[in-house]
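ok so dumb question maybe but i'm new to this and my supervisor (M.) told me to 'just get the structure for plasmodesmata-located protein 8' and walked off. so i did the thing. is this what she meant?? sequence i used:
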Amino acid sequence: MLRRLHLHSTHKTIPAPRLTSLFFLFLSLSNHGNFVKAHVFIYAGCSQEKYEPNSPFEGNHNSLLSSVFTSSSQASYNSFAIGNGSSTPPEGICYGLYQCRGDLRTADCSRCIESAVNQISLVCPYSYGAALQLEGCFVRYEHMDFLGRLDTSLRYKKCSRSVNNDVEFFKRRDDVLADLTVAMGFKVSSSGSVEGYAQCLGDLSSSDCSACLAAAVAQLKNLCGSAAAADVYLGQCYARYWASGYYDRSSGLLHASFLHACDSKSRS
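this is what came out, is it supposed to look like this??
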């Protein structure tokens, strides 16, 4: 079940479905680049519910994170259920997944996941559930089975300054966003001066991926309006577009924000 979330004053962020109550961390966007280094931090969320040291969940949690790191040297996505089908009590089972951005080489994927695994344990110590998004990869685990369940809740957004009265830009942007809605997995698109890419998590079916990307594109338009560049991260997908040459490591024109999530029933 998705509980009420609390904003922390040091830029912490959003919800993950079924995480009891999350605190979220935000990336300052002043150093955001088009394809910046994969380990740059975007957001994280941690459950307030904690497990006890030496509990069955701790052992399975450690095994899952080890499996995530090992698998990342061979594949850009994988999911796990550690302790499922054994004598482990239900509260001891650990479900999780990881995914790298589709354009990363295997070695870069593995390095990104290593960074994410190290950070998630520091940011969310003893948490029963956590999610951490870096620029190039994503890691999530929980004690409840969330795998394959569509989640289009807003996790994080960033929008640039507005572009006014540029009919050509908006036409090109809409062409790119329309192309991204039909992505299966990772897709890059461009039209004239506008570029973009999008990706779904690997546990989604093709129909759920399409639904998630359609929701992400709608959020980009609704939340960022006439922005020259924008990113939206939903629970199981993300989409991004920018005007060519817009992202500049020296600029601080982008800003990040998010919406508080209120109490909501979990999806059946």
